[in-house]
Amino acid sequence: MLEFCARHLRHDGLFYLNYNTYPGWHVRGLIRRLLLSRTRTGSSLRERALLAQEIAAQLAQSIRAGDHPFTQLLVRELDFVSEHHFSYIAHEYLAADNHAYWRSEFLRLVAEHGFEYVADADFSYPTGRVTAGAIPQCLEQSPSGLEVDDDAMDLLCYRQLHSPILCLAPLARRPHSLAEFSELTIASALSACATEGEGSNIFRHPSGYEVETRDSGMQAALTRLRTLWPNGMRIGDLFRDVESVMDDLRLLHQNGLIELRCLDAGETHGMAERLNRLEAQQGNYITTAYHTREAVPAGLAETSLYGRATAS
Q1: How many whole angstroms separate alpha carbon 51 and alpha carbon 218?
Q2: Its pTM surpasses 0.90
Q3: Residues 106 and 89 in one domain
Q4: Same structural domain for residues 17 and 104?
Q5: CA-CA distance, 20 to 110, in Å (whole number)?
Q6: What is the C-alpha separation between 121 and 292, in angstroms, rounded?
Q7: R_g of the chain, CA atoms, integer Å
Q8: Could you tell me which of 252, 250, 259 has the C-alpha nearest to residue 288?
Q9: Residue ranges making up the domain that contains 257
């Protein structure tokens, strides 16, 4: 795949993919090996996938009462198998080849094929990936002199998946201008939770990580953005003096506490897209413009658009 994309990607194009990541995928890999060995007698891939889900559900139930951390981790992974669509189980757990990589290992591999890393596409931090707030916590609590690189961070955060964006090397990076930064959309789920001293407010992320700000303009902006979530607002419309908040916003974004987007996707259901119609038909979910998987929104399942998808 990398060789094919290296030959056909435009010089100014972007290449997106995701891959299973160590160390978090070590546990999922153990579950995969178990299910592969227990489903060999299935007559079809569908039958094997359904059998794998049945086995996972039974195993999870048998150990659910255990309070050991590893037991609870296994329960979560087994529930993941039994609760997902059988088609996902077929390719994630029962495919003949399924390789995971450490981040540094993967980046060396793509570099050998002429690609350069641009950024991660996923900033939604769902379960099983990096938790918002974990990065600053790890950096604050790491022993003096210890460099917390990407592999170490993935270990500390139990990362299982990466979604990188690549381009053909060399990548010419340049700082964004103030005008470009002002055109970005900002979105935030931070909620005001306490007042700390005179003029100081505490905002809490759904992950539990807290941010303190004394700037009244930032306080007003975060309060307003919470009412818009998961949608956002143009930075230039939200802040009078964008330059004064640029560094703070970049830091919050880097640590996964806010999102800075090139565009705002608006409503997340996206049912007009052919892929979403197919997803709704086969799995009763859709992939949103924010790169998250959600159930088909209430009320849309009965529309003629959805009906045409399910009938096709």
Answers
A1: 53
A2: no
A3: no
A4: yes
A5: 15
A6: 11
A7: 22
A8: 259
A9: 178-261
pLDDT digits (tens, 9 = 90+) for 107-157: 999 999 999 999 887 654 443 344 545 555 666 666 555 566 788 888 877
pLDDT under 50 in the chain at which residues? 124-130, 132, 267-269, 304-312
Structural domain includes residue 155: yes
Tokens 């935030």 — which residue? 188
pLDDT tens-digit readout, 98-119: 999 999 999 999 999 999 999 8
Beta-carbon count within 10 A of 100 CB: 20
What's the one-letter identity of residue 213?
T
How many domains are contained in the chain? 4
Contact 20, 98 (CB under 8 A): yes
Share of the chain above pLDDT 70, in %: 80
Phi first, then psi: what are they for 158, rounded to 5°?
55, 50
DSSP state string for the chain = -HHHHHHHS-TT--EE--EEBTTTHHHHHHHHHHHHHHSTT-SSHHHHHHHHHHHHHHHHHHHTT--SHHHHHHHHHHHHHHHS-HHHHHHHHSSS----B-HHHHHHHHHHTTEEEEEES--S--TTSPPTTHHHHHHHHSPTT----HHHHHHHHT--EE-EEEEESPP---PPPHHHHHHSEEE---EEEEE-STT-EEEE-TTS-EEEE--HHHHHHHHHHHHHTTS-EEHHHH-S-HHHHHHHHHHHHHTTSSEEESS---SS--TTSHHHHHHHHHHSEEE-TTS-EEEPPTTTTTSHHHHHHHH-
Q: Domain boundary at 47, 65, 93, which?
A: 93
Structure confidence by residue, pLDDT tens digits, 77-104: 999 999 988 988 999 999 989 999 999 9
